[in-house]
Design brief:
328 residues, F-box-assoc_dom_typ3, 5% helix, Neuraminidase, globular, Kelch-typ_b-propeller, mainly beta
Length: 328
């Protein structure tokens, strides 16, 4: 596996020029940073997005996806979120722009998997076309290209994925975690080839998420003792030695406020920010934001959704870049 920079090339018809003048100017503006879309009901039909720039929550209902199915957040890129639906296999995927509420159901996969290992997504900023990669059980691996509106299966995936989670894109490669903490798998978005990276996690480290920031790969997780999280740490993958180096940890006072013995936590990350929360925690439970560049921990304000929308607390979430010009 390689960590060197590789350009992402996506075939497609350039659609940027067809955008209205306002959106074309918006597309050329500097990105404002990630938002965090957090679901607050177990049907994944409602939720709230946290805007770190304004330090506030926005109520953004999902588009009117088919009501007879439950869609789970699977991946995000370039202002778009990809949702998957399980019904006798992962047959259905939908891509939507949560700001414009426009969505599109993708064609059925060639060979829908019964178990997902990883889902990743990449958007070409010049053509606005996108690719969705799905790796599942029995070496099932396919890539959807919006430019051709087709799925394609091209090569065998390495065995031993850790568990289902969102893949991260870094320097042209899509990275995912391998089983038993023995490293990563990387998919070259240009060449269409998988490779293994031997980068085992430290002993007694409970991995939670991979995050890309400024061309580097980070992981967020907990130091365990007797199956209990005793500390939450941020590790960075060193490029040359392929060793995970601890770069920060949650202050003890904040950790004791955030997590109780025996509890588990979840996190969602995008670019330089990571949100940490207790799944299903009550609305008054602490939610944190960590800045990978500034190495700063921050308490978030309480979610301001109506009471009926917050009965189950924050259940699950995904981070994404809010963009009005993202084309579905």
């Amino acid at each position: 596996g390689r960590l060197s920079e590789v350009p992402v090339r996506v075939q497609g018809v350039a659609r940027r020029a067809a955008l209205p003048d306002f959106l074309r100017a918006y597309a050329e503006a500097r990105a404002q940073g990630p938002w965090f879309f957090m679901f607050t009901d177990d049907d994944y039909r409602d939720g709230s997005s946290f805007d770190p720039l304004l330090n506030t929550w926005h109520h953004i209902p999902l588009p009117a996806l088919p009501r007879d199915e439950t869609f789970f957040p699977a991946a995000s890129a370039g202002g778009l979120i990809c949702f998957g639906c399980y019904a006798d296999g992962w047959k259905t995927f939908v891509v939507c722009n949560p700001l414009t509420r426009v969505w599109r159901q993708l064609p059925s996969m060639l060979n829908p998997p019964f178990r997902l290992h990883t889902v990743g997504m990449v958007v070409d900023a010049d053509t606005t076309s996108y690719k969705v990669l799905v790796a599942g059980n029995s070496d099932i691996y396919e890539v959807y290209d919006s430019a051709t509106n087709c799925w394609e299966k091209t090569c065998i995936i390495p065995p031993g994925f850790y568990r289902w989670h969102q893949g991260i894109l870094c320097n042209g490669f899509l990275y995912s975690k391998r089983f038993e903490f023995d490293g990563l798998v990387a998919y070259d978005m240009v060449e269409g080839v998988w490779s293994k990276i031997q980068a085992p996690m430290p002993h007694a480290f409970d991995y939670h998420a991979l995050v890309e920031c400024q061309g580097h790969i980070y992981t967020v997780g907990g130091q365990m003792k007797n199956d209990v999280t005793k500390q939450i740490c941020i590790l960075q993958l060193e490029r040359t030695s392929l060793q995970w180096i601890e770069v920060d940890s949650m202050p003890k006072i904040l950790f004791e406020e955030f997590l109780k013995d025996g509890e588990s936590f979840s996190c969602a990350g995008y670019s330089d920010l990571v949100m940490l929360y207790i799944p299903g925690g009550l609305k008054d439970r602490l939610v944190l934001l960590y800045d990978l560049i500034k190495k700063l921990w921050r308490r978030l304000p309480q979610c301001t959704l109506p009471e009926h929308c917050m009965q189950d607390g924050l259940l699950d979430g995904i981070s994404f870049e809010p963009r009005l010009d993202a084309v579905v």
